[in-house]
């Protein structure tokens, strides 16, 4: 089939095409006018993924995930949000709605769940491309109802995001509170053990006490060293023997010095008397006896001083023994204090560890408590829904254009279907192709002669058709 044949068929059966087109358009218009009008209201919410959390003070990693926006769309479409819309709008309290629910479900189930399912069927949620805006659309017969439900879904979604963030924080807060009580008990017990130990051992300041006792030990050691030196010196002086006259204690003794002077002076007089008076003179003998008495006295005083060294040595030995015993006792006391300090340090570390654990849990408890009381979210209404003026369904102009296109296709299809059932000769080319004969001429399409020629041609054709069929 070429283009000429196609156009000839359409021209011959244009009434079929026209009637089909008009019927399709008419049916579309009637249906569009009969069907109830539906209005679509849209609300837009924006999800802030760049601002940090106001309580935690840091960027949440979940908002940067690729599926975050898809998750938010699923949250809006969830039963939880839909049931919250039912409670917000109080649709479950309407007598008409209750009657319809009883009629549809015979009172089975919950009316909130049934209403949420009906609302979800007419809800359309679409995220904007390359942005953080989510469009929430709702379609209803009443434009005011459509706008109210769209705004209710937006608000219910915001409330749900707050609940989804607050509910885990509440659970964490309860858990941290329980842990805080346990850790507080541990801290109090550790502090009590530390206090009891300090009271039992009489420890006020362990470092100062240790320093004082160490200083005492050092002082005793110094005293022992001095006493040992003195004892050793006394012992060596005691063993000096004939050299005791040269000892500093003897030489520097005033009495001995006077005795020596008297002896020296008396010896001088004695020498003079020996030359002048002679040794047998009574005066010489008296002076000689006085000299012997002075020397004896000097010897006695010297012996007295040297005997004092023995006493000093004995006293030094006693002091040394006492100091050694005191040092040993001080060492034991110091070791006991160090042992007590080690035990005290263990108890103090237990208190510090319990304190740190309690403070860490308290900090987390305070943070989760603030999060559980938060009313802030990263979602805000960008554009609230308003009552639509024009219906979203049916769209008469669009439906009419579509019906014209479809009616034209249906009309053309119907014309070709009829042509296949009843084929006609539409042109000289059709006649030559059918008869397989050369075309001699074409009768003009004017006047009565042309009509008679066409009738004659049809008559000849139909009479010869059986013969052609036989060939």
Give a description of the structure:
This protein has 471 residues and is mainly alpha-helical. The protein has a 4-stranded antiparallel beta sheet. α4 packs across α6, α8 packs antiparallel against α11 and α10 packs antiparallel against α11. The protein is rod-shaped, with a radius of gyration of 65 Å. The chain starts with a helix and ends with a helix. The C terminus is likely disordered.
Keywords:
single chain; 471 residues; rod-shaped; mainly alpha; disordered C terminus
Question: Mind sketching the topology for me?
Answer:
Elements: H1 3-12, H2 14-34, E1 39-47, H3 68-76, H4 79-89, H5 95-105, H6 111-121, E2 123-127, E3 133-140, H7 143-201, H8 206-238, H9 248-251, H10 254-276, H11 282-372, E4 379-383, H12 396-421, H13 428-435, H14 447-470
Antiparallel strand pairs: 1-3, 1-4, 2-3
Helix pairs in contact: 2-12, 4-6, 4-7, 7-11, 8-11, 10-11
The averaged pLDDT comes out at: 76
Give the distance, in angstroms, between the N- and C-terminal Cα atoms. 25 Å
Largest sheet, strands/sense/barrel? 4 strands, antiparallel
Got a strand count?
A: 4
User: How many DSSP helices?
Assistant: 14
- Molecular shape: rod-shaped
Main β-sheet, spatial strand arrangement: 2-3-1-4
The secondary structure category is mainly alpha
Helical content (DSSP H or I, runs of 4+): over 70%
Low-pLDDT segments, ≥5 res: 462-471
Secondary-structure element series: HHEHHHHEEHHHHHEHHH
Rg over alpha carbons: 65 Å
Approximately how much beta-strand content do the residues carry? 5-15%
